Amino acid sequence: MAGRGRGWARLAGVRSENTPFVGGPLDGRVLPVLVGPTGHPPKWYEIPVPNDDGRPPTAHAYRREPLGYTKRLGLQRGWKYVYAPDGRERRELKWPWSKPGGGGESGGGGSGTRADTP
Question: Where is this region: Disordered (predicted)?
Fold first, then answer.
């Protein structure tokens, strides 16, 4: 039982991956980025840069993209972060019960009237 505890401690370690940054203020730098439980770094990486005039810091956003693929098997080589000058893309949640192109209503799926109403 004593050996079992050491194995769990090894699994709980924090892993990072050296990831290159392309464009923006971090162009050409390779920084260690923490990876999640799936072994992938986050889809977006935001870096707050302080302003000299006392305003809140400016956030520079980077989007994760594949670094490249191997020639023989087409396996992905890793990840890189590409600068997104427009900032992080906001997207709407896609619920499995909502219809495609359903607009902004709460996704009930019905017409808004009850069947027992005259």
Answer: 41-62, 93-118
